[in-house]
Amino acid sequence: xxxxxxxxxxxxALVRDRQVLLVRRARPPAQGLYAFPGGRVEPEETLEQAxxxxxxxxxxxxxxxxxxxxxxxxxxxxxxxxxxxxxTVFTGEPRDGEPVAGDDADTVEWFELDELAALxxxxxxxxxxxxxxxxx
Length: 136
What we know:
Helix content: 10-25%
């Protein structure tokens, strides 16, 4: 990734029963795609702090303990400039409450494994969701 700006980002794969929580992005670069709630890490935040903040902003939910699941590098050109998003994916379970879309999510829903194939997802999101649900 020489010459490409690296952006540190996080996402949270919340699992409830046999369902995973996904948001549909309302803005570019991933507009219209379903993804785990998440976003960029602010300079003063740890990865976990950023994950919890993004989860709350996009879904109104909080989570119990979070565990690091994997790190994914995703190359994109969100503003015409090539960047690599170094994405740390956390997993966990929600605390009480129902999700409500906020921030840059236009919808947020729980999905079961058999519903994922019909959704517009990136390959890394699909692979992570399948692996996380298979562990449950």
